[in-house]
Amino acid sequence: MKRPTLEAVAARAGVSKSSVSRVVNGQATVTPEIRELVMRAVKELGYVPNPAARSLVTQRTDAIAVIVSDPPAGLVSDDPMFSMVVRAASRELEAAGKQVVLMLAGSPESHRRVERFVSAGHVDGVMLVSMHGADPLPAVLARLDLPMVSHGRLGVPVDVPYADNDNLGGAAQAVRHLLEQGRRRIATIAGPLDMTASQDRLTAYRETLRDTGRRSIVAIGDFTRISGVEAMRQLLQDDPALDAVFAANDLMAIGALRTLREAGRRVPDDVAVVGYDDIEASLYSDPPLTTVRSPMGDQAAATARLLLGLLEGGPAEPVILPAELVVRESA
Fold first, then answer.
1. Could you list the residue range(s) of the whole structural domain that residue 178 is in?
2. Based on the structure, what is the number of domains in the chain?
3. Keywords, A to Z (predicted)?
C-alpha cells in the first residue's frame, strides 16, 4: 500500500497543503479547528511525516549526540554506571521525541569523526559524558555554537552547563563516618586526577582529615576493580598500620576488599572500607559495602532535561544533586 502523502491528508481534512505542513511541523500559526481536522486525517490515513522534509522546514534534526569519553579497558564491562547513565539520558531524550546518537570518543581519529559529524548538522545538541580534563573535544565542540551540556562538571575552562552530584559533600560524609567509628589511619584510593569527580572526592578527603590533624595516605586508581586491587597493595606497603580506606568508587573498593582478604586483614575489624556510587555489586561484596549513594540515573536525566531546556531557549544553571551515605557491614 502506498504511503499516505501530505496532499492526501490535506484532501481528507479539507484544508490546504500548507496548513497540513504547519500542523505536522508543530507551528502555532493555525487555528485549533484546523489543527483538529488535520490530526484526525493524519490518524485516519496513518500518515507519518517525512523526517528529511520536516528537517528542512523546522531546521532541526530531532537528534542528540551523546558523546562518551573512551574509558579504561574493562570499565564499561564492569561498571553499570555507564549503561545506567546512557539508559537514563536516552529515556529522557526519547520521551521528548529525540533520537539518540551514541558516540565513543577515545582517540584523535574518533575526535575528528565526532567533530565532522556534529559540525555537519546531523544533531541539534550534544551531551558529554565522562570527559577527562585534558580532552580537547569540549573546547572544539563549543566553537560550533551548538547547545551542549555535560554529565558532570568539566575540568577545562569551557562554559558548558552541567548536572553533577555533590562529590565534595558525599566524600566528606564517608570520611566523617570513618572518624566517628574511631578510625585513626584513614587512607584513600583516588580516581583519575584529570576528572573533576575524582578531584572533588580527594579534596573532601584531605580537608576532612586536615580538620582533625590527621595526615593523608593516598594511592591513585582509574575507577577499575584491578586498580583498586593494586592501589590497596601499595597502601598496605606504605602504611601497614592503616585501619580504614575510602575508595572513590565502588569498583575500586571491591578490588581493595580482595587485597585485604589476601593479606589476612579482616573487614571491618582490622580495616574499614567505604566506597562511592552504590552500584548493585556493593550489596553482594564480602562483606556488603558501606558506600555513598550518588543518584547517577537522576543526574543523567537532569543533564538531558538541561539540554532539552537549552534547545527551547531555557536557562543554563548547573544542577547539583545530593549524595547520601549508605552504611553496611564493611564500615
1. 167-293
2. 3
3. DNA-binding, Transcription, Transcription regulation
Cell representation of residue 68: 562518551
Look at residue 209 and tell me if it is in a domain: yes
Q: How far is CA 258 from CA 32, 229, 262, 286, in A?
A: 66, 7, 6, 9
Measured over the CA atoms of residue 263, residue 267, residue 272 and residue 274, the dihedral's sign is positive
- Using a cut of 0.90, tell me whether the model's pTM lies above it: no
CA atoms within 13 A on the CB side of 25: 22
The answer to whether the CB of 273 falls within 8 A of the CB of 253 is yes
pLDDT in tens, the chain (331 residues): 567 888 888 899 999 888 887 787 666 678 888 888 988 888 888 887 665 455 444 456 789 999 988 655 544 545 677 788 889 999 999 999 899 999 988 788 888 899 999 988 889 999 999 888 778 889 889 888 899 999 999 988 888 999 999 999 999 999 999 999 999 999 999 999 989 999 999 999 999 999 999 999 999 999 999 999 999 999 999 999 999 999 999 999 999 999 999 999 999 999 999 999 999 999 999 999 999 999 889 999 999 999 999 998 877 889 999 999 999 999 9
Q: Report yes or no on 200 lying in a domain.
A: yes
3-class secondary-structure state, position 60:
coil
Residue 322: CB partners within 8 Å, gap ≥ 6?
A: 165, 166, 169, 295
